[in-house]
């Protein structure tokens, strides 16, 4: 069990993969990421982030939040993926059931950036379309960018934090936390 | 008003179905920024809040003249609607436990009441996606919505052809 917790996933007899809801992205896996400030209006900044082939999107957004000292942010994107892993939260196991998807158009990509245990967390939900046009989706666990991923990020001046929710074993935004 | 068609057990909902207020008792709201006359909020729902009811309450409590929003989260259940042009009603598509993969919409006014108009997609176990006009959404662990409140009043008017409120 300790090992399972350590690596954050379990594989059962049916080879279904599960992932912990508190395993978040680590920076450093999006070396091709580029960032451009589009506008500053009052204390709100809007950026275009473009990721390139092979970049991992969750890692890239986490790295952006660290480098640009993002207190909180929200974003929307479109693009392509060589490989995606989305999760469906299984209430019995309190873990994400992992669904792997190959080559896909990213048809929606929405999320927010808040802080948890002194690290930024990019929480994204996405839908992707596969070869026949049907759409799959879920909580984004991993996305390896195809030709490109274009993310519009709005960075807000107000810090937001997550807190561990014991019932669901997941980090959830708590608006009452002032600072941490 | 809920209408049932017995033979196929399909449920239809009127476009004038009224949203009950107060069904999101644990809703929390935080102002993220004010730029000129535009305010941006984070609205957080938790377990068993009803999202359409909560956003309607938000509109009443935060002096919303018009607004637009997008969010993500999880749902214990949703009711999605598909507009049936023959009946001029929404066919109700019930969805169970789901990740809400997209959620966007706007807030305008009709006959002195705020109207929350949202469309959503939701993914099931296995990743298949359903979507439609959002009739109701019972929140799972959490739901996170970014709401941008604009200074301009927007109104709806009932369209005679479609029996539905349209922004004018």
CATH superfamily of chain B: Hypothetical protein, similar to alpha- acetolactate decarboxylase, domain 2
**Biggest sheet character of chain B:** 9 strands, antiparallel
Please compute the radius of gyration of chain B using only Cα atoms.
16 Å
CATH homologous superfamily title of chain A = Hypothetical protein, similar to alpha- acetolactate decarboxylase, domain 2
CATH class of chain A, please?
Alpha Beta
SS strand fraction of chain B: over 45%
Mean pLDDT of chain B: 94
Q: What's the CATH architecture name of chain A?
A: 2-Layer Sandwich
Tally of discrete structural domains of chain A: 1
State the total count of DSSP E strands of chain A: 10
**End-to-end separation of chain B:** 25 Å
The counted number of beta strands of chain B is 11
CATH topology of chain A, by name, is 60s Ribosomal Protein L30, Chain: A
Structural class of chain B: mainly beta
Helix-strand pattern of chain B: EEEEHEEEEEEE
In which range does the helix fraction of chain B lie? under 10%
Indicate the CATH class of chain B. Alpha Beta
| Separation, N- and C-terminal Cα atoms of chain A | 30 Å
Number of helices of chain B: 1
Topology (SSEs and partners):
The complex is a heterodimer of chains A (180) and B (168).
Chain A: H1 2-7, E1 9-11, E2 17-20, E3 34-41, E4 44-52, H2 57-67, E5 72-90, E6 95-116, E7 119-129, E8 135-156, E9 162-165, E10 170-173
Antiparallel strand pairs in A: 1-2, 2-6, 3-4, 4-8, 5-6, 5-8, 6-7, 7-8, 9-10
Chain B: E1 2-5, E2 10-13, E3 28-35, E4 38-46, H1 51-61, E5 66-84, E6 89-95, E7 98-110, E8 113-123, E9 129-150, E10 156-159, E11 164-167
Antiparallel strand pairs in B: 1-2, 2-6, 3-4, 4-9, 5-6, 5-7, 5-9, 7-8, 8-9, 10-11
């Amino acid at each position: 069990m300790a090992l399972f917790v350590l690596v954050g996933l379990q594989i059962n007899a049916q080879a279904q993969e599960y992932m912990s809801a508190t395993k978040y992205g680590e920076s450093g896996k999006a070396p091709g990421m580029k960032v451009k400030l589009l506008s500053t209006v009052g204390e709100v900044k809007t950026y275009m982030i473009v990721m390139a082939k092979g970049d991992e999107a969750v890692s890239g957004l986490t790295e952006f939040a660290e480098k640009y000292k993002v207190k909180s942010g929200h974003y929307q994107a479109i693009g392509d993926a060589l490989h995606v892993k989305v999760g469906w939260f299984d209430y019995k196991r309190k873990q994400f059931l992992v669904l792997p998807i190959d080559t896909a158009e990213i048809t929606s990509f929405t999320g927010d950036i808040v802080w948890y245990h002194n690290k930024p967390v990019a929480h994204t939900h996405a839908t992707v379309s596969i070869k026949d046009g049907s759409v799959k989706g879920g909580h984004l666990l991993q996305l390896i960018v195809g030709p490109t991923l274009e993310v519009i990020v709005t960075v807000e001046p107000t810090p937001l934090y997550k807190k561990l929710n014991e019932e669901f074993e997941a980090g959830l935004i708590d608006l009452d936390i002032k600072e941490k | 008003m809920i209408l049932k068609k017995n033979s196929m057990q399909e449920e239809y909902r009127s476009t004038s179905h009224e949203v009950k207020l107060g069904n999101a008792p644990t809703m929390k709201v935080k102002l993220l920024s004010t730029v000129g006359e535009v305010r941006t909020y984070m609205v957080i729902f938790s377990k068993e809040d009803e999202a359409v009811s909560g956003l309607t309450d938000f509109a009443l409590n935060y002096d919303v003249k018009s607004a637009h929003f997008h969010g993500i989260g999880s749902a214990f259940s949703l009711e999605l609607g598909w507009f049936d042009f023959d009946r001029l009603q929404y066919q109700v598509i019930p969805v169970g436990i789901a990740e809400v993969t997209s959620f966007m919409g706007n807030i305008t006014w009709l006959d002195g009441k705020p109207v929350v108009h949202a469309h959503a997609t939701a993914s099931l176990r296995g990743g298949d996606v359903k979507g439609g006009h959002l009739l109701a959404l019972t929140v799972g662990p959490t739901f996170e919505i970014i709401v941008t409140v604009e200074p301009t009043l927007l109104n709806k008017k009932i369209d005679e052809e479609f029996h539905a409120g349209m922004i004018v």
